Amino acid sequence: SGFKQVREDEKSKLVGNVFSSVASSYDVMNDLMSAGLHRLWKDRLVSGAQSITPYGDSLFLPDSSDFFSRLISKLNPFPGMKHLDVAGGTGDVAFRVVERIKSVSHRATQGTLTDMEEDTHIYVCDINPNMLEVGKKRAAEKGYNEEQCLSWVQGDAEALSFEDGSMDGYTIAFGIRNVTHIEKALSEAYRVLKKGGRFLCLELSHVDVPVFKDIYDIYSFSVIPAVGELVAGDRQSYQYLVESIRRFPKQEKFAQMIQEAGFEAVEYENLVGGVVAIHSGVKL
Question: Binding site residues, as ranges?
Fold first, then answer.
């Protein structure tokens, strides 16, 4: 297929180079590549899905089960929660979680700061220090007091520094396809979550609609690297990103991997015909 073959030991180095190279222009590139849709997809990740495909024996569930599965597919941020966002250096997902918690807390207490809200802690974990610097800078610009609820941690999705059963929620947006061993990242997600904790993953996925797939392929392999060269001065990094999307497991296969990591109630939702998918699971 003409893809560059990457050995395991080279992959982490290559990924590191990609994100060091594009950190400062990452947001601009995301907006250009997704026509701004990545913002809506991240909103969806934090605020929940409406229609999903349950993964397992049956693709059709009766109304009551469907209602239940919609309920558990949401991250449902709440005051006092401990949440881990992995590969989220720029803070995009973490800021949404904080805002969601503040709005829930505000409704419940008419705006007074509760003890529960003071216990809230969002950890942003990223392997790349350049991306974390972008996030910290943005947090300062947005007026977040990082001592209060945000912590920035340099760390590896395959070997997290957090304790077993310490988190209420785990999110990873556009990050899991860049880890060397997806199974290790999934088992680490399972390990750090509490019982009842939710796992949510937003990732570029696979388009199955024939004509749309052809258009998307042309866009991916021709337009994205060209835009990368123009905006970030880095064609190669964006070429790598496109190839990493195509190598990522298809929706059903990835759902199976999440289930094999131990998660229950595993399901996924395709957005924009499968350009992206939100996968979710619960540690029971």
Answer: 90, 126, 156-157
